Amino acid sequence: VQESTMKGMTLEAVAKACGGIYHGSDGNKIKEVSAITTDSRQIQPQGMFIAIKGARSDGHAYIDSCYEKGALCCISEQELPGEKRPYIQVESSLQALKDIAQLYRANLDIKVVGITGSVGKTSTKETIAAVLSQKYKVLKTQGNFNNEIGLPITIFGLEKEHEAAVLEMGMNHFGEIEHLADIGRPDVAVITNIGQSHIENLGSREGIFKAKMEMTKLFTKDNTLIVNGDDDYLSKTKGMGEYKVVYYGITNPENDVYAKDIENNGLNGIKFTAVVDGGEYPIEVNIPGKHNVYNALAAICVGREFDVPMDKIAEGIRSFELTKMRLAVEEYNGITIINDCYNASPDSIKAALGVLADTDKNRKVAILGDVLEMGDFAKDAHYNLGKAVKENGVDLLITAGENMKYLAQGAKDNGVENIVSFDKTLEVCNYVKDEIKSGDAVLIKASRGMHFEEVYDFFYDDYNYLADFSFG
C-alpha cells in the first residue's frame, strides 16, 4: 500500500469537506488518500479520482479503470452500481474539487504567494519561484493551471518537503479571484498591473482593478500585498485594508523597492541597480524586454518578505528562464524568432514590439493576430497599437483576424508602409514561407484563440528545423 503524503485527508474528512455522501465500509472511511487527480491516466494506488464532466469528455466514464489501477476512492455525481467500492457522491464534482483543495491547503503549514495581474503573471511567477528556490523547496503553478481546476490540482501537488508555493491566479469574470484566493489562502499577494485583458467581461480598467483586488478580501494584518507602484490604479492601494502594502517600480524613490541605472542589452537581457532598504544591488535579467525589470522587482519584494538574502535574490533572478511560447528568442540560419504566441493583450504586444526593436537584424517583421475578449474596446485598442508598431521600427507588419485590421489601419496612419493583412491564421502560414529570409527578426504574437503556434510550427517545418528543437 502506498504511503499517504496527504495527511488528514481521510475519506471521512473529504466527504465532510465537500458535503458528499460516503458509500463504503467504515474501515475504509478512516483511510487517507495518497494523491488526488482529475486525470484518470494519473491515478495512483490508494489515490482519489474526481470525475468531472468536461466539454469534451465525462470523467465518470473512467471510474472503473481508476479502480482497476488501485484507486482507493472516486468522487462521483452519479450513484455507482455493483460491488461496494468506496466512493463519495456529490452534487457537483467541480465544487467538490475546490472544497477538497481548500481542506488540504488548510492542513498545510506552508507559505503561499498568490500572483495575479493583467500582464506578466506567468513570467513574474517564474521569477519569484526562482528567487524563493534559493532558500526554500518551492512548488509553482505549471503551465496554465491558474483556474478553478488547475489551482486545486496544483495544491494537491504539495508534499511534506515543500516549504513554499507560488500560485498563479487567472480570471475572466468578477468573483473568480476571490474564489481562487479562498482556496489557496496566500500569505503574500502580488498584483503586476491593471491593463485591458478581459475588459469585455469586466467593463473597464476600474472593473479589472476591483476584480484583481479580490485577492485581498480575506487578508488580515498578517498579510502583505505587493504591487506595481508605477501603475495608476495600484499606486493608490495604501490604506485600503489593514494588511501591509509594498510598492515596486522604476526610478521613483517613493516606491519601497525601485530600479535605477537600467542598461538595456537587447536580446541579451537587462541590467539595473535595485534600491532596497537604502542599499544598492546590481541585478542581471538574462531575458529581453524592459518590462522584465518589473518582474524582477516583484521577485525582490517577495524574497525580501521571505528573508532571502539579496545575493541569493540576485542569483535567483539571474537563473530565471522563460517558459515555452513566452518571448522565447531563437536563432536559426540568420533569422531571429521571437516566439510569444502563448497569449496577448495590448500591453504585452507593446512590450513584445519593444523586444523586436532591440534586435540588430536588417529587417524587423511583426506577425500579429487578434487580441480577443476586448468587446466594444477592440477597435480603439487595436487601432492605437498602430503607433507602437511605427515607434518600434517595424519594417513589415503581417496581421491575421478582424481586430488586427484596425491595428493595420492605425499603423498605416502612423506611417508604416509595408502591411499585409489576412483573415485567417493559415493564410499567414502560407505567406511567411516565401517572405521570411535570412537577416530578418520575426515577432509572432496573438491571443491563444488565434492558434499562432501554427504559424511558429509552419515556419519551422518550412525551414527544416530539428524535430527535437528545444524552446530553452
List the helices and strands and how they pair.
Layout: H1 11-18, E1 21-23, H2 26-29, E2 36-37, E3 48-50, H3 63-68, E4 73-76, E5 87-89, H4 93-106, E6 111-116, H5 121-132, E7 138-140, H6 150-156, E8 164-168, H7 176-184, E9 188-191, H8 199-202, H9 205-212, E10 224-228, E11 244-250, E12 257-264, E13 270-276, E14 279-285, H10 292-305, H11 310-319, E15 328-332, E16 335-339, H12 346-357, E17 363-369, H13 378-391, E18 396-400, H14 402-413, E19 419-422, H15 425-435, E20 440-445, H16 453-462
Parallel strand pairs: 2-3, 3-4, 4-5, 6-8, 6-9, 7-8, 9-10, 10-11, 11-12, 16-20, 17-18, 17-20, 18-19
Antiparallel strand pairs: 1-5, 12-13, 13-14, 15-16
Short summary of the structure?
The chain has 472 residues and is α/β, with parallel strands linked by helices.
Notes on the structure:
This protein is of the alpha/beta class. It is 33% helix and 21% strand. The protein is built from 16 helices and 20 strands. The strands form 3 sheets. It has a 9-stranded mixed beta sheet, sandwiched between helices. The protein has a 6-stranded mixed beta sheet with strand order 15-16-20-17-18-19. The longest helix is centred in the N-terminal third of the chain and has 14 residues, at 93-106. It is globular and about 75 Å long.
Strand line-up across the major sheet: 7-8-6-9-10-11-12-13-14
Structural class: alpha/beta
Number of beta strands: 20
CA(first)-CA(last) distance: 39 Å
Regions with pLDDT < 50 over 5+ consecutive residues?
462-472
Question: How would you sum up the major sheet?
Answer: 9 strands, mixed
So how many helices? Answer: 16
User: What fraction of the residues are assigned to beta strands by DSSP?
Assistant: 15-25%
> What is the average of the pLDDT values?
90
Task: Provide the gyration radius in Å.
Answer: 24 Å
The outline comes out as globular
Specify the oligomeric state: single chain
Estimated helix fraction? 25-40%
